[in-house]
Amino acid sequence: MKDAHEGIISHHQFDFVQKMIKNRKRNFTKFKKHLFTNVVYCNDCGSGMWYRQNRVGYICGSYARHGNIACTNHAISEKELAQVILNDIDWMYNKISDKKFLSDVKALEKKRVHLNQKELNLIDDEINSIKVKKRRYIEINGFTCEVQNHKTQVK
Fold first, then answer.
1. C-alpha–C-alpha distance, residues 112 and 109, integer Å
2. How high is the pLDDT of residue 25?
């Protein structure tokens, strides 16, 4: 029902405000997921670290959400974090490239394979033992049934 009662504002003012609302820019902060967001974790509370552009680094997610009551202000710059990760990758590469390390890993692998084979042999022996017991049980049970059948026939 259009124009059923007198409006508080004129139609012209209403239409003008609607246009303004429609054309208004919204200044929401765009979410930017960075490389290490929720991949790096706080050492104290275990929460994911979040990237903060004003710090050019990562801060504890619990601290970012709840402040000092949740955790302390742990932060690391993106450059420092990248350098730590590159150093770790370099260390792992050097460790893997080391011939002694490789021979130690191979020896450990052989030892584990040998231990696993021993365990499999023990399990096989146990299975065979159970099979023998099962056969004996079936033989005894079969013999018992024959004796019972014989007794019923004799009576």
1. 5
2. 66
Of 53, 82, 97, the domain-final residue: 97
- What is the residue-averaged pLDDT of the chain? 83
The pTM (predicted TM-score) of the whole model is 0.44
Structural domain range at position 103: 98-155
Residue 44 neighbours by CB under 8 Å, 6+ apart: 60, 71, 72, 74
Which among 79, 71, 35, 33 has a CA at the least distance from the CA of 55? 79
User: What pLDDT is recorded for position 132?
Assistant: 93
Query: What average pLDDT does the segment 80-94 reach?
Result: 91
For residue 98, what are the CA distances in angstroms to 16, 88, 94, 108? Answer: 75, 15, 6, 16
Pair (154, 78) in one structural domain? no
